[in-house]
Write a structure and sequence with these properties.
Layout: E1 5-18, H1 24-29, E2 37-50, E3 54-58, H2 65-72, E4 80-84, E5 90-93, H3 105-115, H4 120-134, H5 149-162, E6 167-171, H6 179-193, E7 199-203, H7 207-213, E8 216-221, E9 224-229, H8 231-244
Parallel strand pairs: 3-7, 3-8, 5-6, 6-7
Antiparallel strand pairs: 1-2, 1-4, 8-9
Helix pairs in contact: 3-4, 4-5, 5-6
Pfam families: ABC_tran
Protein name: ABC transporter ATP-binding protein
GO molecular function: ABC-type transporter activity; ATP binding; ATP hydrolysis activity
Length: about 240
């Protein structure tokens, strides 16, 4: 039986521009012209994720984990290399992903769903389920700028959790909100992740979470893949490496 890949990444390179600070006087007088520095966050990595597989990504801060996840989500464009999702729909669960602040929660549900590739009719069919799950009451028809961080997080989580895509990307967010909602959201995430037809990529610092949930773990270090394979073996090696300092 032929192995099907949900995600194929080849020679992926992503860099950021770093502008050095210069004085206004120097800028105005053109006394010193410098080409902006570029920081290479991801350095030519290649990997694949099988359909239905749960891949965990770990690494210290600045290792390129979230940059890679954002590239998979289409938020960052690579400098070079390729990402092939093989026709699968994809969503990113990350508290950093924003709403349009002047729009209501209800309007943002529709917009977010359509950005995920769903039709307006498909989003409307799931709208009440999203609203009920989010538990933000009358605020659903108020501008998002009036929301607390907790309400914002609840709605963001609910949209991604209820509008189920083929591939789910999760960035350090397995539970959000108050204690009651945390329990509900964690159970919902476990249910979504356990669906054998869904492919999941999780970025996390939690060794236990990755050991419990993942089929494969990829350890990133300074923009490169240091090791990829069995979760227990990779994570034990990562812990030993980090303890050495």
């Amino acid at each position: 039986m032929e192995e099907k890949h949900a995600i194929e990444v080849k020679d992926l390179v992503i860099s950021y521009q770093n502008l050095k600070k210069t004085s206004i006087k120097k800028t105005l007088l053109h006394l010193k012209r410098q080409k902006p520095d570029r920081f290479v966050a991801v350095k030519g990595i290649s990997f694949y994720v099988r359909e239905g597989e749960i891949l965990g990504i770990i690494g210290k801060n600045g290792s390129g984990k979230s940059t890679t996840l954002n590239a998979l989500a289409g938020i960052f464009s690579p400098d070079s290399g390729s990402i092939d999702l093989n026709g699968h729909s994809i969503s990113l669960l990350s508290i950093g992903v924003g709403f349009i602040r002047e729009m209501t929660g209800r309007e943002n549900i529709t917009l977010s769903g359509m950005l995920l590739g769903f039709t307006e009719e498909q989003v409307k069919a799931k709208e009440q389920e999203i609203i009920d799950f989010a538990e933000i009451g009358e605020f659903i028809d108020m501008p998002v700028r009036t929301y607390s961080s907790g309400m914002y997080s609840k709605l963001a989580f609910s949209i991604t959790a209820i509008l189920e895509t083929d591939i789910m990307l999760i960035d350090e967010v397995l539970s959000v909100g108050d204690q009651k909602f945390k329990k509900k959201s964690y159970e919902k995430m476990k249910s979504l992740i356990s669906n054998k037809d869904r492919t999941v990529v999780i970025v996390s610092h939690s060794i236990e979470t990755l050991k419990q949930l993942c089929d494969t773990v990829m350890w990133m270090h300074e923009g490169q893949i240091k090791r990829i394979g069995d979760p227990n073996e990779v994570l034990d090696e990562y812990v030993a490496f980090m303890e050495k300092g």
